[in-house]
UniProtKB/TrEMBL annotation:
Any matching Pfam family: Phage_AlpA
UniProt name for this protein: AlpA family transcriptional regulator
Origin species: Dyella jiangningensis
Taxonomic placement: Bacteria, Pseudomonadati, Pseudomonadota, Gammaproteobacteria, Lysobacterales
Signal sequence coordinates: none
């Protein structure tokens, strides 16, 4: 029997799930938190304009379109990006 991993999207504010895939008997559920621009700015300490510039250059995680006028980032990707910046600093030193 093969193991599968199910994904559940959960909003960052802890509200009800917008979409979910029921886990199979051998699956583990991995929540994906979506965060909006204010949270991205708080995590990275970057300005809105610089976040968009880095994203356009392919140097920052791409945002997801979650509505007609709404975008969000996957929190784990943003945190991994910050960690990569810290790791690169340590290698360069």
């Amino acid at each position: 029997m093969e193991s599968r991993t199910s994904v559940v999207l959960a909003p960052a504010n802890g509200g009800p799930l917008s979409r979910g895939i029921a886990p199979t008997e051998t699956a583990s559920v991995v929540p994906i938190r979506l965060i909006r621009m204010p949270a991205v700015r708080a995590i990275t300490s970057l300005s809105r304009a610089w976040i968009y510039a880095l994203e356009k250059q392919g140097r920052f995680p791409k945002r997801l379109k979650i509505g007609d006028r709404t975008s969000a980032w996957v929190e784990a990707e943003v945190i991994a990006w910050v960690q990569a910046q810290a790791d690169a600093r340590e290698v360069a030193a």
